[in-house]
Amino acid sequence: MNIKLYVQTLLPALGWTALLTVTSLTVGVALGLVIGLARVGPVRSLRNAAAIYVELVRGIPLFVQILYIYYGIGYLIRNIYVPSPFVSATVAFGICYAAYIAEIFRAGFQSLDRGQAEAARALGMTRRQTTRLVLLPQAFRNILPALGNEGVALLKDTSLASVVTIGELTQAGRALSSLTLKSFEVWTVVALIYVALTLPLSWGVRKLEARLRVRGAAHPA
Amino acid sequence: MSAAPLIRLKGVRKSLGGKEILRGIDLDVAKGEVLCVIGPSGSGKSTLIRCINFLEIPDQGTIEFDGAVVRPDESLDRHRARVGMVFQRFNLFSHLSVLDNLTLAPSRVLGLSADQATQRARALLDRVGLADREHAHPAELSGGQQQRVAIARALAMQPQAMLFDEVTSALDPELVGEVLEVMKGLAREGMTMLVVTHQMKFAREVGHRVVFLEGGVVAEEGKPEEVLERPKGARLKEFLGHFS
Ligand SMILES: Nc1ncnc2c1ncn2[C@@H]1O[C@H](COP(=O)(O)OP(=O)(O)O)[C@@H](O)[C@H]1O
Ligand SMILES: [Mg+2]
């Protein structure tokens, strides 16, 4: 086993996987929050638009979304802007995960005690202030484990980005495997790297979940 | 007590879930008056109190405050800021410390500086006997302590009137007294108060006037000794029977 070759190839690939996960999750959470807010907000047209977005995006396989955005949309706008594979993948993952994360935010908002919002409004706070200063912090705390799980799922899903030639782990695994012709060895290493990344994350999420549950059980609010 | 009412309800009607809960309420609360509202469960007491600060928007009728009709428009936030409300279940902001519960609205709604808001909050915590708990979170406090914080939170807005909706009903009996003491203090200082309560002793000793709500209408009203000692209607007699 050529350790040096593995390190040289897989270390940068690991960086791409990590970077793609972080940027995509950021887009997904930001967009998911906006859509989740629209979903529980007072404006009916926005509520409907958000619902349609969620259903539509969840109905399309992620793999197809990546191809659609990189090749389909990329072709359509080729004269105006040519996005890099990385940007395309970030947008595709962000759009897709935003749909699932929006549902998490929606559930997070809906699970809050109605008295919290009423207390804020009764003090003269506007709807906006109430959402930003009272509801969002509480919802966010409650959904943190669920968001963590999305992050873990996303990290694994970034392997799909190899189809648009980003040099992340899976793409690097393919390159290594055709170079060395040692498929079993290469894919075992790649698989183990994924496990090494996701295991601590999942563990952290479970710890967090347990801590929130203990606090919640001791002090139902 | 001056003659002009601070709060005046005229013909207030409100339906919820297809059922008419308030069926034409006329009610005045004078400046500095402590008005106690009693009545069986489901008679519309909470709905009445929630209509006054428009957590429920009345279907019909008007609510005047300080001589002007309150309209359910952008000015509502300003109206709510001058009417304090205390809930049965405290509703303290669960993610904030006691101190932050008291400073949030004064700084965000009234525009107080952090220093001013903190100073005001500390003075109020001292007054409700919780000066040493400012860093605690609501979940770390007893029900009685939480409710005292909730009263202080409402007072931090320096409201012109306070609404209390069965604020001792969710408390263990031994914690009721400490909350009622705070309310008595407020009444002594001349705060205008509308108090929905099952504490007949409080109504008798602190209330200036008592209203008996029954089926969404004011069935009887008068001085505490009249309403509580010499009830006229059969329903009120029966209702008071549960407390003796
Ligand atoms: N949001 C609602 N939708 C439908 N019915 C409601 C709602 N809120 C209260 N009610 C009903 O209105 C009636 C009066 O409620 P409420 O004002 O809370 O009475 P009280 O405080 O005197 O017990 C009750 O029968 C209650 O079930
Ligand atoms: Mg009630």
Summarize the helices and strands and which ones pair or pack.
The complex is a heterodimer of chains A (221) and B (244).
Chain A: H1 3-40, H2 44-58, H3 62-76, H4 85-110, H5 114-122, H6 127-157, H7 169-180, H8 183-218
Helix pairs in contact in A: 1-2, 1-4, 1-6, 1-7, 2-4, 3-4, 4-6, 5-6, 6-8, 7-8
Chain B: E1 5-16, E2 19-30, E3 34-38, H1 45-52, E4 60-65, E5 68-69, H2 76-81, E6 83-86, H3 98-108, H4 114-127, H5 143-155, E7 161-165, H6 173-188, E8 192-196, H7 200-206, E9 209-214, E10 217-222, H8 224-229, H9 234-241
Parallel strand pairs in B: 3-8, 3-9, 6-7, 7-8
Antiparallel strand pairs in B: 1-2, 1-4, 4-5, 9-10
Helix pairs in contact in B: 3-4, 3-5, 4-5, 5-6
The complex binds adenosine-5'-diphosphate and magnesium ion.
Structure characterization notes:
The complex is a heterodimer of chains A (221) and B (244). With 221 residues, chain A is mainly alpha-helical. Chain A has a single domain (3-218), classed as Orthogonal Bundle (MetI-like fold), CATH 1.10.3720.10. Helix content of chain A is 82%, strand content 0%. Chain A contains eight helices and no strands. In chain A, helix 1 (3-40) packs antiparallel against helix 2 and helix 1 (3-40) crosses helix 4. Chain A is globular and about 70 Å long. Chain A starts with a helix and ends with a helix. Residues 216-221 of chain A have low confidence and may be disordered. By secondary structure, chain B is of the alpha/beta class. Chain B is 36% helix and 26% strand. Chain B has helices at 45-52, 76-81, 98-108, 114-127, 143-155, 173-188, 200-206, 224-229, 234-241; strands at residues 5-16, 19-30, 34-38, 60-65, 68-69, 83-86, 161-165, 192-196, 209-214, 217-222. In chain B, the strands form two sheets. In chain B, strands 6-7-8-3-9-10 form a six-stranded mixed sheet, sandwiched between helices. In chain B, strands 2-1-4-5 form a four-stranded antiparallel sheet, covered by helices on one side. In chain B, helix 4 (114-127) crosses helix 5 (143-155) and helix 5 (143-155) runs parallel beside helix 6 (173-188). The model of chain B has no long low-confidence stretch (mean pLDDT 96). Chain A binds chain B through residues 113, 115-116, 118-126, 129, 133-134, 137-138, 141, 215, 218-219, 221, and chain B through 53, 55, 77-85, 87, 89, 91-95, 104-105, 108-109, 137-140, 150, 153-154, 157. Magnesium ion binds next to helix 1 of chain B.
